[in-house]
Amino acid sequence: xNNPSRSVASPRVVNIENLRSLARRRLPKVVFDYLDGGAxxxxxxxxNCRAFEEVTFRPRHAVGVPHCDLxxxxxxxxxxxxxxxxxxxxxxxxxxGGEVAAARCAGAAGTAYILSTISGHRLEDVQAGSSGxxxxxxxxxxxxxxxxxxxxxxRAAGFSALVVTIDTNIAGMRERDLRNGxxxxxSGNLLDKIPFLPQVLARPGWLMGFLRDGGLPQLPNVVxxxxxxxxxxxxxxxxxxxxxxxxxxxxxHDVWRGPVIVKGxxxxxxxxxxxxxxxxAVVVSNHGxxxxxxxxxxxxxxxxxxxxxxxxxxxxxxxxxxxxxDIVKAICLGARAVLVGRAYAYGLAAAGEAGVGRALEILxxxxxxxxxxxxxxxxxxxxxxxxxxxxxxxAG
Length: 396
Known about the structure:
- There is one protein chain.
- Helices cover about 45% and strands about 15% of the residues.
- By secondary structure, the protein is α/β, with parallel strands linked by helices.
- Strands 4-13-12-11-10-7-6-5 form an 8-stranded parallel β-sheet. It has a two-stranded antiparallel ribbon with strand order 1-14.
- Helix 2 (about 15-25) packs antiparallel against helix 18 (about 340-375).
- The longest helix has about 35 residues, at about 340-375.
- The termini are far apart.
């Protein structure tokens, strides 16, 4: 059997797409498509990546740049380079190391990891396993009582910030999941799984790891008062009663008593609402194209949000980041840093912790190489003069 760690160390693994190919070979189709897919026709999923292709560079040549300073700060925390690991729901399906492995890699790379509420590992274990910053991403799953308990646990465990996602009042229509039997895979009924077993049996390496890990546990960070931990299979139904409102942010602030970041902002109006509700940062995000299809690519929405925020909060963005040059483009358009989700999750799915480390190495090397080719010596020196944006983009 091939050694996944050796595979990602191959000199032929030079970009995130190579990690994606390895992930496809290692995972059952149902799990790979859960990671890889988007909502409905996947228009926004594809637009996120295409938007970066539409932005072109304006380099300064004949400039010597022997060393580049990749450091930046987010909410006063220094990061070694401007990419944080975004929350990815139930990473433990992709590899038993899951969220613990990803957080450990983020800490080793000198950046931050954001843990999803829909985690397969206890938040205390994820925090304990990382040497770096760990933030907690909040859904109101299980009602206010469950959310308050999770917030209090995150604060007690030493999480540095709370990321509140506002674009999941219901689950998006992810057609690949329906076709592949994701609901049946998560079901406790063996008869429901039978039509979909061949795709799982076709990946014996993944299946062995999955079974050794105990199969599908509950969601340890969604503990409903009087009921216990929520089963993963109940997520879609639970989201329908877990919508976050601007009013909710006020009691969330009171319980958390720390920095709150609002994720899922695509317009200047929502950015201002978030600031009025006490957010210290916003994440320009369309949920990786997994919620409402046919919304703007995150990169295209970024300039409008940066203008609306007007320095009153920090602006981050996610969606479609696959290369270091993508990160540089987002910084040029006003982002303080980016969140990467699929980029590191492909690495996790390809080779566990070693794959996450390789993904971060690829992105970091890409940022440094792009800066040198631009003739720019630091992340802090980047601005809009280094890029050209299509004239038909939303005004910023």
